[in-house]
Write a structure and sequence with these properties.
The complex is a heterodimer.
Chain A lengths: L19 E2 L1 E3 L2 E3 L6 E6 L4 E7 L3 H19 L4 H17 L1 H12 L3 H22 L13 E2 L2 E5 L5 H14 L3 E5 L6 H12 L7 E3 L4 H9 L5 E5 L2 H11 L5 E5 L5 E4 L5 H13 L11 E5 L3 H12 L20 H16 L3 E4 L14 E4 L6 H4 L6 E7 L2 H9 L6 E5 L3 H10 L4 E4 L18 E2 L4 H5 L3 E2 L11
Parallel strand pairs in A: 1-5, 7-8, 7-10, 8-9, 10-11, 12-13, 12-17, 13-16, 15-16, 17-18
Antiparallel strand pairs in A: 2-3, 4-5, 6-20, 11-19, 14-15
Helix pairs in contact in A: 2-4, 3-4, 4-5, 9-10
Chain B lengths: L26 E5 L5 E6 L3 H20 L2 H17 L1 H12 L3 H21 L3 H5 L1 E2 L6 E9 L2 E5 L7 H12 L3 E5 L6 H11 L8 E4 L3 H9 L6 E3 L6 H11 L5 E3 L14 H5 L1 E9 L3
Parallel strand pairs in B: 5-6, 5-8, 6-7, 8-9
Antiparallel strand pairs in B: 1-2, 3-4, 4-10
Helix pairs in contact in B: 1-8, 2-4, 3-4, 3-7, 4-6, 8-9
The chains are: A alpha/beta, B alpha/beta.
Chain lengths: ~475, ~290
């Protein structure tokens, strides 16, 4: 049974989007020296939201110099106690402006307002609160009595959780005494630019946070700039590898949070309704644009049929459409390019002989959309079982024994996350020990918290974000010779 | 002094707990610090490197699954065996590095003590690097360090025994397995160590020792898909180090950079242990 819902759109009136934005360097918005611009659009409507400046080599240099000056003159020498207070201010401002930030995020990214309002923005505030408290307690974190910052951090983030990824990068960097130059993704720059305004409201000293916008080339210039001491990147494994090659031999510290192909493993004793909810959340949260998404469902053979039926039934009730509608479950795909990639991989699944099922729903005429899709009859050799799709597409495989489940789950170059659903406690711990992944969610999935370290094994990257372990990525650890230190 | 002709030995590699010759059939002359001939050592090849990766991967299952208590005992056993052979180690180090007897003995003692130091770390690291995490919700959440996997290391070129032990002990202490390329010009202390390892309780494949030229072997291992991490401590050629770092990017290997002129006698920090562990975080809901 499904219910009809009247539209319940969140109001756009809380946001005030300028027609064009400059670069935030040294505490003020400045024009890009080359004069290049690009447009950011609402992926749900294809409406142009604003014109964004494209930072070139001179702008990157200016931003790194501003960050260096702020590091040497103000932020580096400042007491941890005072750095903490700036971070607390930022956390409060995020809370105060949370509705505006949520709407802005949904407009620019296409994610449902329910998620930006209830997940993204509250976690952003939580990250600043958590790290604010560390700023004057770093001597207790296990990195020596008086651990020093690294200097200037170059940070490049993706479009799937724009403001949350900014918080994951900026909060620990600032708490540890570094200054930053951050480049948001070219399709989702607006909340980062709103964050620049929050820095201004907080009276954060100029140059401590610099936001430069642009595409891959701007990111490359930033990462390669010789004035940078630390590079932090979240994004695709392909770009992460390129960055590793770029910084090789430079002495820059590096942390990478890359792709994933997580297995969500359901045993026959798991409470099926709860497990299906978790599976749905695991892959269809944020349209599947999640590096730790549970994109491979491993079902114990005895319950496979029943579970797939329940899954399809549940997916039939998901509402796809206007991301600003508070009842929407599935929003828009972030860009035409990402939609093309999803289409391509889904076609490969059909061509290679897997069985496709897509939830019956009407896709809006404008914008970029993809109906929740499940593939059954998938083998480990299929591309849809090996490659990260980064979309609302689930590949279902089966297993008989716990050993086989572990073997299949680990049979991937990635190692970011994994899920286990079973009522048996000893089996949870047995599985958790053997899964080669940085995060194991047992009887839950896609939970995030600033106190909980996040990051991968193998080709999912190295270094951790969040928790006491995450601080190491932004501190000059004694005797450090790690290229990607902080592990 | 007698005029007996000494028995000269051609040393071999140590892979998977066995002593194979280099598949290339090549050897190279090892001379003492004063230039006198000491021995022939195997000149490891690309294929030897690959064989060692197979052995290290095979060894990883059992070694990483062993309890931390057990790994600590195995590491301590290496110290015990070295202690019994300390005279041989001292004469190797003396010849290799041109040290006097006192300095050589001091290095051997420090190397033995280094095994003991890391033996004591195996069952404490999770308490020091791990954590119970206070998340904002009804979840039990904890983080533990786990071994990275197969690590390829280049031992220091100067400190032939203490440097070597200081590199490999922290790698295996956490449950990773190692393939180490011994000091090219001073490999004999490493070879004597393999003979001690073979009679200790270290399982086959946990520690694999190659002799030869890192510039020849390392590029193949840096790009090998079944290697998880590189420790470039003993790489003295800066260009080679950059090449290896770039190669490592192909499968996102963890890389620890070169470390020249290090005082190996200093008590280590946790840095080496941290380099080759991964943090795993586990969530579980709380409820009735």
């Amino acid at each position: 049974m499904s219910f009809e819902y009247a539209p319940a759109p969140e109001s756009r009136s809380v946001v005030d989007i300028a027609s064009s934005y400059g670069l935030f360097i040294g505490g003020e918005f400045v024009e890009a020296s080359g004069g290049g611009t690009f447009k950011t659009v609402n992926p749900a409507t294809e409406e142009v939201l604003a014109e964004i400046s494209e930072a070139g080599a001179d702008d990157v240099d200016r931003a790194v110099r501003a960050a260096r000056a702020a590091y040497e003159d103000v932020w580096g020498p400042m007491s941890g106690r005072d750095r903490a207070k700036y971070l607390f201010r930022i956390a409060r401002l995020v809370q105060e402006r949370s509705r505006e930030l949520a709407v802005l995020e949904t407009l620019d990214n296409g994610k449902p307002i329910r998620e930006s309002r209830d997940v993204d923005i509250p976690l952003v505030a939580a990250h600043f609160f958590y790290h604010a408290g560390w700023a004057d307690k770093l001597g207790h974190a296990g990195y020596g009595a008086d651990p020093r910052p690294l200097g200037v951090a170059a940070q490049v983030i993706p479009w799937n959780f724009p403001l949350l990824m900014l918080a994951w990068k900026i909060a620990p960097a600032l708490a540890c005494g570094n200054t930053v130059v951050l480049k948001p993704a070219e399709t989702t720059p607006l909340t980062a630019l709103a964050f620049a305004d929050i820095c201004r409201q907080a009276d954060l000293p100029p140059g401590v946070v610099n936001i430069i916008t642009g595409a891959g080339e701007t990111g490359r210039l930033l990462v390669e700039h010789p004035g940078v001491d630390k590079v932090a990147f979240t994004g695709s494994t392909e770009v992460g590898k390129a960055i590793m090659r770029q910084v090789a031999g430079s002495g820059k510290r590096l942390t990478l949070e890359l792709g994933g192909k997580a297995a969500n493993i359901v045993f026959e004793d798991a409470p099926l309704d709860q497990a299906i909810e978790g599976v749905v959340n695991g892959i269809f949260f944020n349209q599947g644009h999640v590096c730790c998404a549970g994109s491979r469902l491993l079902l114990q053979e005895s319950i496979a049929e029943e579970a797939v039926d329940a899954l399809k039934r549940r997916l039939g009730t998901l509402r796809l459409g206007d991301p600003l509608d508070k009842n929407t479950d599935i929003g828009a795909i972030n860009s035409a390019a990402q939609l093309a990639r999803i289409d391509e991989l889904v076609s490969s699944g059909e061509d290679e002989g897997a069985d496709r099922w897509s939830a019956p729903c009407t896709l809006p005429e404008r914008g970029w959309w993809f109906a929740p899709t499940v593939f059954t009859g998938v083998t480990q050799a299929h591309r849809i079982a090996r490659e990260e799709i980064f979309g609302p597409v689930l590949s279902v495989l089966t297993f008989r024994t716990p050993d086989e489940a572990v073997e299949k789950a680990n049979n991937t170059p990635y190692g970011l996350s994994a899920g286990v659903w079973t009522e048996k406690g000893s089996r949870i711990l047995w599985m958790a020990e053997r899964l080669r992944a940085g995060i194991v969610w047992a009887n839950t999935f896609n939970r995030f918290d600033p106190a909980s370290p996040f990051g991968g094994y193998k080709e999912s990257g190295f270094g951790r974000e969040g928790g006491i372990q995450g601080l190491g990525a932004y501190l000059a650890v004694d005797d450090a010779h790690d290229v990607g230190a902080g592990r | 002094m007698t005029d007996r002709v000494e028995v000269r030995k051609t040393y071999k590699l140590f892979v998977g707990g066995a002593f194979p010759r280099s598949e290339s059939g090549r050897t190279y002359e090892v001379v003492a610090a004063d230039g006198t001939f000491l021995a022939n050592a195997a000149k490891g090849s690309r294929k030897d490197g690959r064989d060692a990766v197979l052995a290290a991967r095979k060894g990883f299952g059992a070694w990483s699954a062993a309890t931390a208590y057990n790994r600590g005992q195995v590491l301590y056993r290496v110290a015990e065996i070295m202690e019994g052979r300390s005279a041989q180690f001292a004469s190797d180090v003396m010849a290799a590095e041109g040290l006097d007897a006192e300095a050589a003995a001091r290095q051997v003692e420090a190397a033995i003590d280094r095994w003991v130091w890391y033996a004591g770390w195996t069952d404490k690291l999770a308490q020091v690097l791990g954590s119970a995490n206070q998340v904002a919700g009804p979840y039990f959440n904890f983080s533990v360090p786990e071994p990275t996997g197969v690590v390829v290391a280049v031992a220091p070129q100067d400190s032939s025994l203490l440097g070597l032990v200081s590199v490999i002990a922290p790698i295996v202490a956490t449950g990773s397995t190692v393939i180490v390329i011994a000091s090219t010009a001073r490999p004999l202390p490493a070879i004597t160590l393999t003979e001690a390892l073979a009679t200790s309780d270290v399982p086959g494949g946990a520690i694999n020792v190659l002799t030869g030229d890192p510039a020849e072997i390392m590029p193949w291992l840096a790009s090998h898909a079944d290697v998880n991490a590189l420790d470039l401590t003993g790489v003295t050629d800066a260009d080679l180090a950059v090449t290896l770092e770039r190669e490592a990017a192909g499968t996102v290997k963890r890389v620890r950079g070169p470390q020249a002129d290090h005082d190996w006698y200093a008590t280590p920090s946790l840095s080496r242990l941290r380099s080759f562990v991964e943090t795993k975080t586990v969530w579980h809901p709380m409820g009735t």
